[in-house]
# Entry
Amino acid sequence: MNEQQFLFVDFEFTMPENKRQPGGFVPEIIEVGIVAVVHDEVIDTFSSYVKPQKFPILTERCKKFLNIRQEAIDSGISFSELIERLMNYESTYPSTVVTWGNMDVKVLKQNCGLANISYPLKGKHRDLSLEYKRFFGDRNQTGLWKAIESYGKKGTGKHHRALDDALTTYSIFKLVEKDKEYLLKPAPTKIGDLVDFTKLMKKVSTN
# Structure
């Protein structure tokens, strides 16, 4: 029987300087964080910057928002190396990819199209933010760190660092799964469910 692997994946992306930036801007992956989990145990983590292909120079807005330097991105792995890494995870175990929101998968597919590379993740995808929204009946989708804080916990490391966000996603996943198990667990049997007290009282009164 094949082991099941969960891959908690988070990407950070490039940003235009403003919403009206010309030139057909598309977001590109510039940082990756991966947490691989089998049998509720973290078996591997991976973190790296990734060099963008179409717009290699980061905007000031992007550098400020992500607190990231151009030099760090320039020394990152190539997009093809990122794809190779993801394929290696997939080849080890059948994988379910878990992300907070759908942007990570959407941008990965878009970037694969730009690079003319096949999309590497063949397993099931779970959008944990959508599951969280449905589970708690929220009207709007909740941000990653707001969700972990609602459990009285703190996020791992710094927000908008890919590996830290992937680890935080894993933490929320465990909490939500535990809550689901609790709700689905049958209530303990009470003595009243085993004994018909009406019949018992009638029998006592006739004696």
Notes: DSSP finds nine helices and five strands in the chain.
